[in-house]
Write a structure and sequence with these properties.
It contains ten helices and ten strands. By secondary structure, it is of the alpha/beta class.
Length: about 325
């Protein structure tokens, strides 16, 4: 079964053709990073306009790269939640038009479920149930993947997501957007033990995250140094910050896995591309005897292939959309 997957939840216009949820025949992404870089982050209205300009060519390129036409496609899958509402509306509207014009079923896909499904593309042997750490610009969650379309959230962020904390800390350190990549690069030559940073916890919620205080600690270090006329070693602070976020994410994931009896762990989302997070996950899973699945770098960020992969399983589960399908800015995976 061939699924056309369409993704436009933030600043990447993406489309892909995926077979049976596992085989990628094409995966086209039009990025807006350079345009948003001058603003230090994503400008929602600008992102929506660029999606309008890019989406036809991106979908057309995905079909051509897969050497198929719409008549060969069995269903159209699209991200409908969560994300920037204007950006989501572009993808949803386009997908509805394609589905109605071609007579193909329309399958609504949850964006975070798509990130989880990126692992199915890279790892044909991965099957639920397992525990997945989802870490991205807007989300930080520990998720029980009970089945391909059934999820239970074990822990979640109470304030900033990990990726958001990376971007905000990077801005304070003078790095350009996207901040996570810049901090990762700077951390390679820094001392991860140079600065002692807090490991915030949420009372009564063992597996929940809180990154706001950690972000504030980095801001205070930078501002205090500036007020005293002192120089800070940006690479050392970047390395310390990356180490701390990695420890928080991985420690809670390992603790949840042991408590819930999971031996199979996966990671998903843009932050799963971070070298500190990946290396610590690999080490801790090895020490605990857990099997670890990581998506390749190119599938960590937003892309159409992950939507096509999850769309296949949502299709098999009977999920369908029609002309009334709307975009939803905020939605839990448990409410799909």
């Amino acid at each position: 079964m061939l699924i056309l997957g369409i993704e436009s939840s933030c600043d990447e216009t993406a489309a892909a053709v995926v077979e049976d949820g596992r085989i990628v025949h094409s995966n086209i992404v039009a990025t807006q990073i350079e345009e948003h870089k001058k603003f230090g982050g994503v400008v929602p209205e600008l992102a929506s306009r660029r999606h309008c300009e890019n989406i036809y060519d991106v979908v057309d390129s995905a079909l051509k790269a897969a050497n198929v036409t719409l008549s060969d496609i069995d269903a159209v899958a699209v991200t409908y939640a969560p994300g920037l509402i204007g950006a989501l509306l572009v993808g949803v509207s386009f997908a509805k038009g394609v589905a109605m014009a071609s007579g193909k079923p329309l399958v609504p896909v949850h964006h975070i479920a798509g990130h989880v499904a990126a692992n199915y593309i890279a790892h044909p042997d991965l099957k639920p149930p397992y525990l997945c750490l989802v870490a991205s610009g807007g989300h930080s969650q520990i998720v029980e993947v009970l089945d391909y379309t059934k999820f239970r959230i074990v822990g979640r962020t109470r304030d900033d997501a990990a990726g958001e904390a990376f971007d905000k800390a990077a801005r304070v350190l003078g790095f350009c957007y996207p901040g996570g990549v810049q901090i990762d690069r700077a951390a390679q030559t820094g001392d991860p033990k140079a600065y002692k940073l807090p490991h915030p916890s949420v009372t009564g919620s063992e597996y929940d995250f809180s990154f706001s205080g950690l972000k504030t600690a980095v801001i205070n270090i930078a501002h205090n140094a500036e007020q005293k006329g002192e120089e800070i070693n940006k690479n050392d602070l970047a390395a310390s910050f990356q180490r701390t976020i990695s420890e928080i994410l991985v420690d809670k994931t390992m603790s949840a896995a042991r408590a819930l009896g999971y031996k199979t762990i996966a990671a998903a989302g843009g932050v799963s591309a971070n070298s500190g997070v990946r290396s610590l996950l690999e080490r801790r899973c090895r020490d605990n005897g857990f099997k670890l699945y990581l998506p390749p770098q190119e599938l960590c960020g937003d892309n159409g292939a992950m939507i096509g992969a999850q769309g296949y399983y949502d299709y098999l589960a009977g999920r369908r959309g029609d002309e009334s399908l709307n975009a939803v800015a905020t939605m839990s995976m448990e409410d799909i």
